[in-house]
Amino acid sequence: MTELFAWYNLIFEIPVLFGVLLAIGSALGLDHHLDAEIGDADFHSPLEALGFGRCPVLIVLATMGLTFGGTGLVVGRVAGKVFPLLALPTVLGAMVVMVVVTRFVAGLVARHLPTTETSSRTLADLVGKTGRMTLPTGEDRRGQAMFLVGGDVFSLAVVSDDGMIQKGESVIVTEYDEAAGVLLVVRDPLGTKGRL
Q: Which residues are within 8 A (CB) of 106 and not within 5 positions of it... i.e. 6 or more apart?
């Protein structure tokens, strides 16, 4: 048990723990903001060689921690029984294995995962969707409506194809006029006044 907390084991156990925590964080999707902050690494940087900028940061860091720590612990257990003073060569060997494995994993992830992830929508995607008028249409048939699509709320300028439409009435997007940049709406025959 005392060997568990020996310095020559701690230098490998801490990265393994770090790697496990990062892997859990990545599995829970906690790397979204971290990737946005780090962005794409410079193509010729040492970080890019490890996979930064090509795959999610937490995957790279978790792979580094697990590989370095795991290699060090295994080599330390096997070689430590024969040569107990192999801490420095074990660290160097673990670093080499970490770089090779991390590059391999990052390359695999970069090859199979999309480089960008977005939930953006175009105005044309709203055709056929229902919404509620938040500002009534005036004599120029222009108003504003709120749409709930996939958990996102959009408040957009609309033009009525159905006369004047009052605030709170339900509408359906019939067309997106790309030239004018507005959505054309009509009253929803099934809709009622009220909240979105």
A: 50, 51, 52, 54, 55, 59, 60, 63
Q: What is the pLDDT of residues 114-128, one digit of tens each?
A: 655 555 678 888 899
Q: Name the residue type at position 25.
A: G
Q: What secondary structure does DSSP assign to 80-145, as a single string?
A: HTT-TT-HHHHHHHHHHHHHHHHHHHHHHHHHHS-S-------GGGGTT-EEEEEE---TTSEEEE
3-state secondary structure of 195: coil
Report strand pairing: 130-135 vs 152-160: unpaired
On the 0-12 / 13-18 / 19+ scale of CB atoms within 10 A, 66 is buried
**Is 67 in contact with 103 (CB distance < 8 Å)?**
no
Please name the amino acid found at residue 40. D
Give the total residue count for the chain: 196
**Domain ranges within the chain, ordered by starting residue:** 2-112, 123-187
Contacts for 134 with CB less than 8 Å, ≥ 6 apart: 143, 144, 145, 146, 155, 167
Residue 27 and residue 38: Cα distance in Å, rounded? 19
pLDDT digit string, tens, across residues 18-58: 888 888 877 776 655 454 444 444 445 677 777 777 777 88
**Cβ partners under 8 Å of residue 140, min gap 6:** none
**Nearest of 170, 118, 128 to residue 145 by alpha carbon:** 170
**Which CATH code fits 123-187?**
2.40.50.140
